Amino acid sequence: MKKRFSIIMALTALLAFVIPNSSFAGIGGPTSYKYSTYSANNVKLNVIQTIPGNIQLKALNLSANLENTSNIGINGGFFSNQVEETTGMKKTHNIAINNGKPVIGTDKAGNNGWYNSGNQGTIIWDAKNGKFLFKVLNNGWEVNKAVGHNSYWAQGGVSMSLGSTSWKDTITKEKLPNPDGKVQRTAMVYSGTGIYLIVTDTKCTAEAFRAAIQQYFGIKDGSPKNDVNGIFLDGSGSSQMRAYDNNNKLINIKGDSRALHQIVTVTP
């Protein structure tokens, strides 16, 4: 019995060593993230929870939708079908930078992930110092200045201003498209040292989506939390998610299956 117990303990230790982020593991499910759902005020949130070190920003350059890739994650920043004349690249309208380089190439002249559409909310994971930064920024040079090194990722969008009573003024200033329309919506939120990728396939206003997210994180307007904030990402038909639940069932939120420019992915 003692020998059998020792073998079991040794195997347990070995599994703990070889399975990264095992706290996310479900029964036969993923090990680097957790998928869950949450409903509030008739809005259903689909949530991927992971750690910031598992996040990588990628470009699809309108070549595919998320469903037709092998990536786990959600759609990213706002984009258009226009081509940037100086680079020949399709335009993405938000910052998407990995370790000092925009998602499309290294040429910083075009709309390739180096720029927001004006001054907009940007979530930065400072990997060197192990902390999140939330800044309203215009471009990658400002990100580099805020961080002071290249060991980071940065994703831009429109500030959600979680806990703020003036959030409507902010989304107007940062030009959130169609805030009062009932469409599918996408967000990225950090809390403590966790990152949450959130998509709703409930057609709702920005206010209803934000309210459901605030309820999920236990936040009320007028009572912000210093370690919780988020951004609206592209919505409507762009709102897409691909993940596996704890029973290893594929979750596919397709939006209108349109091809995407930029995505936020979770490494296995």
List keywords for this structure.
single chain; 268 residues; alpha+beta; 4 helices; 18 strands; globular; NAGPA
What is the averaged pLDDT score? 88
- So what's the overall shape? globular
Strand percentage: 35-45%
Structurally, the number of domains stands at 1
Biggest sheet descriptor: 6 strands, antiparallel
Tell me roughly what share of residues is in helical segments.
10-25%
Task: For the largest sheet, list the strands in their spatial order.
Answer: 1-2-14-13-15-12
Unreliable parts:
2-22
Number of helices: 4
Oligomer: single chain
Give the helices and strands as they follow along the chain. HEEEEEEEEEEHEEHEEHEEEE
Number of strands: 18
Kindly name the structural category. alpha+beta
From the N-terminal CA to the C-terminal CA, the straight-line distance is 37 Å
Radius of gyration using CA atoms only: 19 Å
Pfam family, one: NAGPA
Domain Phosphodiester glycosidase: 69-265
InterPro entries: NAGPA
Keywords: Signal
Account of the protein in words:
It comes from Paenibacillus elgii. InterPro entries: NAGPA (IPR018711). The chain is of the alpha+beta class. It has one domain (33-266). Helix content is 16%, strand content 42%. It has 4 helices and 18 strands. It has helices spanning 2-18, 140-147, 167-173, 206-217; strands at residues 34-40, 43-50, 55-64, 73-75, 79-84, 89-92, 96-98, 101-102, 115-126, 131-139, 152-156, 158-159, 183-191, 194-204, 228-233, 241-244, 250-253, 260-266. The strands form 4 sheets. A 6-stranded antiparallel sheet has the order 1-2-14-13-15-12. The chain has a 5-stranded antiparallel sheet with strand order 3-18-4-16-17, with no helix packed on it. Strand 1 and strand 2 form a beta hairpin. The protein starts with a helix and ends with a strand. Residues 2-22 have low confidence and may be disordered.
